[in-house]
Design a protein that fits this description.
Belongs to the protein kinase superfamily. NEK Ser/Thr protein kinase family. NIMA subfamily. The protein is globular and about 55 Å long. It is built from nine helices and nine strands. The chain has about 260 residues and is an alpha+beta fold. It binds adenosine-5'-diphosphate and magnesium ion (MG).
Length: about 260
């Protein structure tokens, strides 16, 4: 901790705090995420998993891991600082002004590239949402917050332990089926829809109504000016049976929208 000077608190959550820090030696800025370490052994393991999984990632579109250390009862994860803030904030800034299609395609293609890297390593992110997707000062997208991530085939009933924003959760999770790579695809579909409309695809006054809408895959139609391939892609990402959804590999290589996306990478 002595190697860094703290500039400010940039996020506060159930875990602890996210601080903007500067390395005293190199002057480089980083985000330092402090996580209160639990006493219970299995929960301790779970807390450490975030640092372990993030440290295995190495990709343009994933927040870069710098180092992790433990001090007293705190786990500190030091990572790349994304000065553009999170995507939810960026969406809210727009108020009602729609994003241009080039920005939508560029950001979404970068999200898919980052998520494909995660899946290629047989890891599931499990909390993809606009609040966990960051922008650098240059406007590059970086996936972050590996606090819910796990190695493939690790999870049984994820819904029971779910505490976050429910808007991005796939139908199979509400049905208590295992979390799989296609559940991440559903969540990215929700982010793509948000970029296209500035609204959530599935929204309701209560959890019960929300879950019903999600499990029917019923979302308000997309504006007609969007490219046909993109509307088709969203329709497929929102298939209620995960087997019918395209994988990230398909989205980026063989789907009808993939040329459009790759042209923006
Ligand atoms: P939580 O588990 O509370 O969701 P996050 O890792 O998402 O933790 O961090 C919480 C908040 O801190 C984020 O929503 C964001 O505002 C800020 N933050 C986290 N990591 C970064 C980063 N690498 N660059 C910029 N801001 C970040
Ligand atoms: Mg988060």
């Amino acid at each position: 901790m002595e190697s860094y000077s703290v500039h400010k608190v940039i996020g506060e959550g159930s875990f602890g705090r996210a601080l903007l820090v500067q390395c005293r030696k190199t002057q480089e800025k980083y985000v330092l995420k402090e996580i209160q370490l639990p006493k219970n052994a299995s929960r301790l393991e779970k807390s450490r998993r975030e640092a372990v999984l993030l440290s295995t990632m190495k990709h343009e579109n994933i927040v870069a891991f710098h180092e992790a250390f433990e001090a007293d009862d705190l786990l500190c994860i030091v990572m790349e600082y994304c000065s553009g803030g999170d995507m939810l904030h960026r969406i809210r800034e727009q108020k009602t002004k729609q994003f241009c299609i080039d920005d939508i395609l560029k950001w979404f293609a970068q999200m898919c590239a980052g998520a494909k890297h995660i899946h290629d390593k047989r890891i599931l992110h499990r909390d993809l949402k606009s609040k966990n997707i960051f922008l650098t000062g240059k406007g590059t997208v970086k996936l972050g917050d590996f606090g819910s991530a796990c190695v493939l085939n690790c999870s049984k009933a994820y819904a029971r332990t779910y505490v976050g924003t429910p808007y991005y959760v796939a139908p199979e999770i509400w049905e208590n089926k295992p979390y799989n790579n296609k559940s991440d695809v559903w969540s990215l579909g929700c982010v793509l829809y948000e970029l296209c409309t500035l609204r959530h695809p599935f929204q309701a006054p209560s959890w019960k109504c929300l879950i019903l809408k999600v499990c029917r895959g019923a979302y308000p139609p997309l504006p007609g000016h969007l490219p046909h391939e993109l509307r088709l892609l969203l329709k497929q990402m929102f298939k209620t049976d995960p087997r019918d959804r395209p994988s990230l590999r398909t989205i980026l290589t063989s789907h009808r929208a993939s040329r459009l996306l790759r042209a923006h990478l």
